[in-house]
Structures are given as C-alpha cells and as structure tokens.
C-alpha cells in the first residue's frame, strides 16, 4: 500500500478514536451527574446500571475503536522514515548481521548480545517493582473510605507517579546502554565481515515483530485485568466514590 494512503488511514483512525473517547467521557460525566442529582443515595447497582445502560452505545464504540486501532497498527504498521533508519544503530546492526554468518561471530559480538538481553530483563524487573507499592495500595480496599478517600487517592497518585518516573529513568538509561552496546557490536561486526570477505549488504528487515508481540501481550493483560475487575464486583463502589468526587469535591453539583 502507498505510504501516503497508509498514513492517511492511521490519521483518520486516530481522529475516530479520539472523538469516540471524548464522547464516551462526556456521556460518563453526564450520567454520573444525573445519578447524583436523582438523590437515590446510597446508590444501588440497579439504579446505576439503569442509568449507564443508556450510554452503552458510545462506550462500546469507544472500546471498539481502540481495538480497531490496535489491530490496524499490528496489521498495517507505519514504515520508519529513512532519516531515522539511518541514525538508528540497530538498523545498521541488522544490515551487518545479514552479512555475518553464525560461524564468523566472535566472542565479543555474542557478549554484547547477551549484555543487551540481560539489561532488558533487569530493566523490566525494576520497572515492575517500582509499581508494586501502588498496586498494593490499590488492592487495600479498606483504606479507601469516605472519610479517607481524598488522602488515599493522593497517596495512590503519588506512588503511581514515583513508579512512572522510576520506569522512565530506567528506560532512558536502558536505551543509552543498548545504543552503546549496538555501536560496539557494529564495530566488531565490521571487523568480522571484512575478515570473512562476505557479499554485498542486504536491505534490513523491519523490526516490527517485537512491537507486535508487545502489543498483543498488552491487549491480553488488559483483557485479563478487566475480567478480574468485573468478577470482584468492586466497580459499584468505585462508581459511587467517583460520583461523590466529581459532584462534591470538584463541585459539579
């Protein structure tokens, strides 16, 4: 497919997703305000379900558009620009790997690859560990009471921000280390190729498999978490607390 048409499709899909999410958010706010104004507190699952059944269509459209965007990115990914490809050391490395047979790989090249794998594992473990305090606090349901709701939410947000900052710093450090390692492997690969006298360079393949796998894993994890949340029936309490926050704390009422 032509690159211009592909980019146009992705742009239109992004606009549709944004519009669907905005519409769903507005409908949720209106429904929450309507429930609060009805004066049926404490709210029952029946009253909440009856009100939110009215906005099922925009919610399903928003969810469907998100999944459609994910499928589009997996099935028809955007090609990388040539300038980025020339500056990316991993693209250069893949070009050299096409010319370098397994028999010609030196110990230094293998060491650099093992180093990158080890750094990815360490970074993933540390990123997950940085969110453990926030997850533990979120699963501590007794902590989120009416009198302690504001404080508990602030504590949760602070822990989430700490996890995001730590993960961002770790990913930044990982990218630097990986780029340095790739540049070293490029030098060793050039030396090995020149000594083995192999044929001309071949065009590198797109490094999209990892991205596809990561997206599929994220979709699977998201679906699993949604199912777990629905089976615990805790979303009724969350809805009531959300309505109270929007109408009482923020002042929509």
Protein model, in words:
It is built from 10 helices and no strands. About 4% of the residues have low confidence. The termini are far apart. It is mostly helical and 253 residues long. It folds into 2 domains: 97 residues, no CATH class; 124 residues. The protein is elongated. Helix 1 packs across helix 2.
Distance between the termini: 52 Å
Portion of residues in beta strands equals under 5%
Contiguous helical run count: 10
Q: Return the string of H and E elements.
A: HHHHHHHHHH
* Main sheet record: none
The gyration radius over C-alpha positions equals 25 Å
Share of residues in helices: over 70%
Low-confidence stretches: 198-206
Shape: elongated
Tell me, rounded to a whole number, the average pLDDT. Answer: 77
Q: Given the helix and strand composition, which structural class is it?
A: mainly alpha
Count of all domains = 2
Beta strands, count: 0
């Amino acid at each position: 497919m032509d690159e211009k048409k592909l980019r146009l499709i992705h742009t239109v899909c992004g606009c549709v997703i944004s519009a669907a999410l905005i519409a769903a958010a507005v409908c949720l706010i209106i429904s929450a305000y309507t429930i609060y104004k009805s004066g049926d507190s404490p709210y029952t699952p029946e009253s909440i379900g009856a009100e939110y059944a009215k906005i099922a269509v925009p919610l399903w459209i928003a969810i469907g558009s998100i999944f459609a965007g994910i499928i589009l990115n997996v099935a028809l990914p955007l090609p990388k620009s040539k300038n980025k490809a020339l500056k990316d050391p991993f693209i250069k490395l893949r070009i050299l790997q096409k010319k370098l047979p397994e028999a010609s790989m030196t110990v230094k090249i293998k060491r650099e690859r093992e180093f990158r794998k080890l750094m990815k594992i360490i970074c993933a473990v540390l990123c997950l560990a940085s969110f453990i305090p926030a997850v533990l606090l979120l699963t501590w349901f007794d902590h989120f009471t009416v009198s302690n709701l504001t404080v508990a939410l602030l504590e949760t947000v602070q822990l989430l921000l700490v996890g995001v900052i730590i993960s961002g710093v770790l990913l930044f450090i990982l990218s630097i280390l990986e780029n340095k390692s790739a540049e070293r492997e490029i030098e060793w690969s050039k030396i090995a190729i020149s000594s083995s006298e192999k044929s001309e360079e071949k065009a590198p393949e797109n490094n999209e498999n990892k991205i596809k796998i990561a997206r599929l894993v994220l979709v699977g994890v998201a679906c699993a978490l949604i199912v777990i949340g629905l089976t615990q029936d805790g979303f009724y309490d969350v809805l009531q607390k959300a309505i109270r926050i929007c109408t009482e704390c923020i002042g929509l009422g």
